[in-house]
Design brief:
With 426 residues, the chain is an alpha+beta fold. It has ten helices and 18 strands. The two termini are 15 Å apart. The relative contact order is 0.16.
C-alpha cells in the first residue's frame, strides 16, 4: 500500500462564530484543582431582594456576580451547554466541588434505568420498605414500613417528590445496603466521566465528604437523556400522589420555560437551592446546572432567565446532518475506488445569533484506506474550526458503505495501474 500523508478536506461555511469554551474551562478547573471538599454555606448574593421578591424582579444585570464564561448570574455555580455541539455557553466555578443535595438522586435514577433497560428489573418489580427507609427525614414519598412498592412508583417518588425514603428503598433493594449502593454510584460515575464527584448515599442527604461539580451533573443529565430515551419521560411529571398525599414537582421550569422536560432540583441548608434542567426547542437541546441560590423563587427565575438567554443569543448551524456524506475517501485495492465518510451525529457549530464568520470543516484520514472496509468502521475525523484561536471540535467519521477487497487478479492489476499511472494524478 503506498504511503500518503493524511488527506485534508476544508469546506468554508457561511455561519457565525463557533463558541468554544474549553480553554477557559480548563483554566478554571486548574484553579480549583486544590479543592477537596465543598465550600461553606453560600451567602445571599449582592443585590438579591430575598424570598419576598417577585419572580420577575431582581438586581440590574450589570451588578450580577460575573462568570468565567458567559453572563453574570446570582447562582454560586452555573454551567450551561448545548447538548448537540457540547459548546459551553456559561461557566461559573463549574469544576469546583459543591454539595449536590437532591440532585444526587439523578445518579440513583441512572442506575435504576440501567437495570430496567438490561431487563434485570421490571417496572412492576417490588422492593420492601425497611425501618431505615421509613425513618428518613427531609422530602419524602411517605412510604410505610414493610410495605412493598413497585419500581415504577419508586422512580416517581424519587424524581417528582424527591423522596429520600424512596431512594433508600431502591438502594437497599438493588444492593442490599445504601453504603454498597453508594460504592456502585461512584464506580459508574467515574465510568461516565464524572471525575469530580463523590457520592456517599443514594439521596444526596448532607454528609461530610460528598460533593459533585456542576459540569459532572451536566454530564450525568446528558447521558441520562441519551442512554434512556424510553425512561426519561419520568422526569417530565409535574405531580404525583402517593398514600393519598399529592405533591408537586419542585422543578417549576416544567410549567414555566417552553421545552423544559426535566431533570431535578436540590436544596440543603449548606448547599442552597439548585437545579439541573434541560429544555429542547426546534431540535436543539440545552442543559443547565445552577446551585447556591438563596431561595426557591430565585432558583426558578434565575434558571428561566439563563435558559432563555441560551436559546435567544445562540443557535446551531448544521454543516452536515447525521448520515450525510461529509467526504469521499480514496480506497486502496477495493471494488470501489472511494468510500463515503459519514458522522453519527450532526456536524454543527453553536454560534452567536447575528454574527457572521467563516466556520471551516476539515476532514482528516489516513489514505488511501485499505480494503476491505466495513460499513460503520471508523475512518477519520471532522475538525470544526470557527476562528483563529478557538479550540477545534473533533467529530469521528465512519465508513458509510461496505467496500469489499478486490480478488487476486484485480489486486494485481490495481498495483500495476498505481505504479504505472499513479504519478499522473499525484
Amino acid at each position: 500500500m503506498p504511503h500518503r500523508p493524511p488527506v485534508l478536506l476544508a469546506a468554508l461555511l457561511a455561519a457565525p462564530l463557533l463558541l468554544v469554551a474549553a480553554p477557559l474551562a480548563a483554566q478554571a478547573q486548574q484553579q480549583e484543582a486544590q479543592a477537596t471538599k465543598p465550600g461553606a454555606k453560600p451567602k445571599t448574593p449582592p443585590g438579591h431582594k430575598g424570598a419576598g421578591a417577585s419572580p420577575k424582579a431582581g438586581p440590574p444585570l450589570d451588578t450580577l456576580p460575573p462568570s468565567q464564561i458567559g453572563i453574570g448570574t446570582l447562582a454560586r455555580f452555573a454551567y450551561l451547554i448545548d447538548a448537540t455541539t457540547d459548546a459551553v455557553l456559561l461557566f461559573k466555578d463549574a469544576d469546583k466541588p459543591m454539595m449536590p443535595s437532591s440532585m444526587a438522586k439523578m445518579m440513583t435514577v441512572y442506575l435504576v434505568f440501567e437495570e430496567l433497560k438490561a431487563g434485570r428489573l421490571k417496572p412492576d418489580t417490588r422492593f420492601r420498605v425497611s425501618e431505615r427507609a421509613r425513618s428518613m427525614g427531609g422530602s419524602r414519598m411517605f412510604v410505610e414500613i414493610n410495605s412493598e412498592i413497585t419500581i415504577d412508583d419508586l422512580i416517581k417518588g424519587v424524581i417528582t417528590l424527591s423522596g429520600n425514603d424512596a431512594c433508600v428503598v431502591l438502594a437497599e433493594g438493588m444492593s442490599g445496603t445504601e453504603e454498597t449502593f453508594a460504592a456502585r454510584m461512584n464506580k459508574r460515575a467515574k465510568e461516565l466521566g464524572m471525575t469530580g464527584s463523590v457520592f456517599k448515599n443514594a439521596s444526596g442527604w448532607p454528609v461530610e465528604g460528598m460533593y459533585v461539580t456542576a459540569r459532572d451533573l451536566a454530564v450525568l443529565a446528558k447521558r441520562t437523556i441519551e442512554d434512556f430515551p424510553e425512561y426519561y419521560r419520568y422526569y417530565n411529571m409535574t405531580e404525583f400522589t402517593w398514600n393519598n398525599i399529592r405533591q408537586e414537582n419542585r422543578n417549576r421550569l416544567l410549567g414555566l420555560t417552553p421545552g423544559t422536560d426535566g431533570l431535578k432540583t436540590g436544596h440543603s441548608e449548606d448547599a442552597g437551592y439548585g437545579l439541573t434542567a434541560s429544555a429542547i426547542r426546534d431540535g436543539r437541546r440545552l442543559i443547565l446546572v445552577v446551585n447556591g441560590l438563596s431561595d426557591m423563587r430565585s432558583r426558578t427565575s434565575e434558571s428561566a432567565r439563563l435558559m432563555e438567554w441560551g436559546f435567544r443569543e445562540y443557535s446551531n448551524k448544521v454543516a452536515f446532518r447525521t448520515g450525510e456524506t461529509v467526504a469521499l475517501a480514496d480506497v486502496w485495492l477495493g471494488e470501489a475506488g472511494k468510500v463515503p465518510l459519514v458522522a453519527a451525529k450532526p456536524i454543527a457549530a453553536t454560534v452567536p445569533v447575528g454574527q457572521e464568520a467563516g466556520v471551516r470543516v476539515k476532514v482528516e484520514y489516513e489514505g488511501p484506506v485499505r480494503a476491505p472496509i466495513r460499513k460503520g468502521e471508523r475512518i477519520g475525523k471532522a475538525v470544526v474550526q470557527a476562528a483563529a484561536g478557538a479550540n477545534p471540535v473533533e467529530i469521528p467519521l465512519y465508513a458509510g458503505a461496505d467496500v469489499p477487497r478486490l480478488g487476486p487478479v484485480g489486486r494485481a492489476f490495481g498495483v500495476i495501474k498505481h505504479y504505472l499511472f499513479g504519478w499522473m494524478s499525484s
